[in-house]
Amino acid sequence: MRSLHRYLIAAGVASLLVIATACSKPADAPTGTATPASPPSSDADTSNAKQIVVTAVFAHDDAATNYNKTLVPDGAKVLVAENVFDGATTVTLNVRGLVPNRAYGAHAHAMPCGPTGEAAGPHFQHTPDPVKPSVDPAFANSANEIWLDFKTDAQGDATTASTVPWVFTNAKAASVVIHADPTQTAPGKAGTAGARVGCVSVGF
């Protein structure tokens, strides 16, 4: 499992850095859309393998919305890559042009982005918490949800990834929301991360 995790992270980060370094969309897909890619070759079961990449520019593309233009400036770039392989899901997030040297929270959410941050709904949970809002660490945690917290570098750029040992079935996440603060883990506050400052819709 450890070698699979390293492979998934390497594959996801490598593919997104090629795109992100060019600061452009894949040649055959418009910005703000998902791009399926061929599954990797392996002796493992690849029946559920897939890859989706979404790139967008805040305030320029419909897929990305910035609710706080100080923390997520107009023109900042975002890339979300989903890699599904052998029963595990890796989501990679790359951002460019945010506030330098700053920590942000980020999670996969249940609904697409909308005119306000609340439109994205709650965090997507593989095993839903029967109590809403979910602030119980038994459900609001990085194994049951997709957490993508990051800290930007001196240029305001960052890359982060999360691998979970499950795949989306009938219920799927529909966006990645960037929050103003790092994610908390204490009972009664688990999963909270301050205001929703940016959002990118993703067809997981």
Descriptive notes:
This protein has one domain: Immunoglobulin-like (Sandwich), CATH 2.60.40.200. It has one helix and nine strands. The protein has one helix at 2-22, and strands spanning 50-57, 64-66, 77-85, 88-96, 103-109, 150-151, 158-164, 175-179, 196-201. The strands form two sheets. A five-stranded antiparallel sheet has the order 2-9-8-5-6, with no helix packed on it. A four-stranded antiparallel sheet has the order 1-3-4-7, with helices on one face.
Topology:
Blueprint: H1 2-22, E1 50-57, E2 64-66, E3 77-85, E4 88-96, E5 103-109, E6 150-151, E7 158-164, E8 175-179, E9 196-201
Antiparallel strand pairs: 1-3, 2-9, 3-4, 4-7, 5-6, 5-8, 8-9
Summarize the structure.
The relative contact order is 0.20. This protein is mainly beta and 204 residues long.
Could you name the key traits of this structure?
four-stranded antiparallel β-sheet; disordered N terminus; mainly beta; 1 helix; Immunoglobulin-like
Number of DSSP helical runs: 1
| Low-confidence sequence ranges | 1-46
Largest sheet: 5 strands, antiparallel
Overall structural domain count: 1
Q: Given the C-alpha coordinates, what overall shape results?
A: globular
Average pLDDT reading = 84
Count of individual beta strands: 9
Mind telling me which CATH architecture this is? Answer: Sandwich
Main-sheet strand order equals: 2-9-8-5-6
Radius of gyration: 16 Å
Distance between the termini: 23 Å
Structural class, by secondary structure, is mainly beta
